[in-house]
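Lab notebook, bench 4. Continuing the backlog of folding jobs that were queued last week. Each job is logged with the same field layout so the records can be merged later without manual cleanup. Today's entry covers Cytochrome P450 family 4 subfamily F member 2, a 471-residue chain. Filled in by technician R.K.

JOB TYPE: sequence-to-structure
TARGET: Cytochrome P450 family 4 subfamily F member 2
LENGTH: 471
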Amino acid sequence: MSQLSLSSLGLGPVAASPWLLLLLVGASWLLAHVLAWTYTFYDNRRRLQCFPQPPKRNWFWGHMGLVPPTEQGMRVLTQLVATHPQGFKVWMGPITPLLSLCHPDIIRSVINASAAIAPKDKFFYSFLKPWLGDGLLLSAGDKWSRHRRMLTPAFHFNILKPYMKIFNESVNIMHAKWQRLASEGNARLDMFEHISLMTLDSLQKCVFSFDSHCQDAKITTASPSLPVGRCGEDRECLHSGRNVVRAQPLPSLPHRPPRSSPLRVLSNDPENRCHSSSLPLTHDTTASGLSWVLYHLAKHPAYTRSPAADVPRPRPSPKDAHRDDLAQLPFLTMCVKESLRLHPPVPVISRRVTQDIVVPDGRVIPKGMICLISVFGTHHNPAVWPDPEVYDPFRFDPENVKERSPLAFIPFSAGPRNCIGQAFAMAEMKVVLALTLLRFRVLLDHTEPRRKPELVMRAEGGLWLRVEPRS
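JOB STATUS: finished
OUTPUT FIELD FOLLOWS
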């Protein structure tokens, strides 16, 4: 009886070949990783069974497209939050689960975790990295800690005093333009367009000591969006332009922030300018917050006529607002916060946990899980906010605030990675709103805005309101 051997098969020399050994090692490595991934996938799937999930749209696509970035998607999300007030599980395709969290008790375990345990998820923010680099928004670990320590003093409330004059100047330019347009019969304005330019103007002057005259210059939108295939080309153009800007000295303004201002020090140091690369994003979030609060006050004019209202009363000199004035506008602050609750500028925050996290009810979020902290869902959760779709500034009366979790209201995020510029944004919003309501009547347009959540909360086709100068 003949015996089967490698020699009889002509494989003897091959068996001794290092290439076969390399092939076997590679195949073993691949098999080990496939088995490890398979075990982790099914183990996580088993552990996630304690989290509810809505019906899938498709066995392959999972829940993709269930909540599109449209008004209809916002309504679907509101219904999901009402059905699953603690949060729910969704599948992005057949193998990628996500957890959407929308209750303060559940969010606390993730959002208050250290930046090492719950860093920002690279999957959701990676497309921003070619443009923003490893600045404060996208960095992690020691680099993030170093950037945060360096930038925190720049946004202390006491630092804002020199910027109040800049806030006033920028809003005065915008209001002069509104006065001119109203006199020409063009009183119907897209709030996002005008306020975005105004907040950009303020930010450039405060942070970079640069006046681009962006509110006066004619700006043409070449394209509202760009094909994904052009990302590499556009990135190279951006990097080339950034190098040119870094090589140029910053021009002087008539009223520059004091030399001791950390923002000025940061922006004047070529090595540190990259750390402030994410700061321009703040002008869009501030513009979103301002646009929506003007919409709500136009929709609910009774609040500006309420005995508690502190904003519409004529002042001796409505030309400027000062820092001390901000503390005398408690009802305006309540109006701003209620608008930020209904329309948070950043609707969702993404985190990827690097270790198992136990939530208060005993359930476990497995290591490696992507958690979507739904700011919009938390703010519209009927288990947290009675009648969540109603605009009611008195929710933020100090007595009512005491009864709620501090994580019930998170328009600027919370925990160690909260928004570093929230004091800056709130101060600017209150200055702009106070002066706007003193100088103009803001009225609803005939078109009801439709929400459009992107990186910031916008409105489809713009948020249109009518303005009438006060006599």
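OBSERVATION: The longest strand covers residues 464-469.
SIGNED: R.K.
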